[in-house]
Design a protein that fits this description.
Elements lengths: L5 E4 L3 H12 L8 E4 L3 H11 L2 E3 L2 H7 L2 E4 L6 H8 L8 E4 L6 H6 L7 E5 L9 E7 L5 H12 L2 E5 L5 H9 L1 H18 L4 H22 L3 H8 L5 H12 L1 H18 L3
Parallel strand pairs: 1-2, 1-4, 2-3, 4-5, 5-6, 7-8
Antiparallel strand pairs: 6-7
Helix pairs in contact: 7-12, 8-9
Amino acid sequence: MAKENIGFIGGGNMAEAIIKGLLKANVCTEKQLCVSDIRKERLDYLEATYSVKTFTNKKEMVKVCPIIIIAVKPQDVKTVLGEIKEEVSPSHLVISIAAGISTMFIESLLPQGVPVVRIMPNTPALALAGMSALTSGKAATTEHLNTANKLFKAIGETVIVPEKLMDAVTGLSGSGPAYIAVIIEALADGGVKMGLPRPVALKLALQTVLGTAKLLQDTNLHPAQLKDMVSSPGGTTIAGLQVMEKKGLRGILIDTIEAATKRSQNLGG
């Protein structure tokens, strides 16, 4: 990839996942990666584990990194941008992974003309199986968007969407891993209720979810087609599906995504 240094403001789990993916995919080298965080022990860990360069002073890092990834909590974005704005110029590319924070809000806190790309990744990025949605601000060019896209492809799949859809992305793929985790846990609990040892039940549930997703992805089958393939007339699957319909599982999941989307909209920015 490009030879530019990439600086992370915030060294949490998502930043680590991106760093791990970039290095594993040979998108860049350790020497190109820099991290700034308020926790010295976190910086020590990242430096020891990935051989990246660390900074306690984020302003100094921004000076040597043309690409800046804002990887802090949404409520901390305003403070962070206020601290670095004097060091940021239109020659930088600022990438934000803060949920609910718009490109317009970020641009308003930086010098005019600074290109901004907003990205919503998710936690499976820790296993290099993430889903990231990208959108760009007013000053960002197609080249800026492509650069960000290449970076985040290192940790999974990517899509480019209009910014007005980013809150829905947050509600679906951003928050979705938690919902899938609950579903997996419930499937395992069902197996335990019917007599399966918990480790066996959990393994069955995990692999069933993983295998189903991979099958749908590899074959491009619509989920309804796969459901019909498994549902034999008068069989076990259709009996289970009837219970799901009676209990309103579809409506629960749809309402869940709606609630998460609205919460993302209320985060501000």
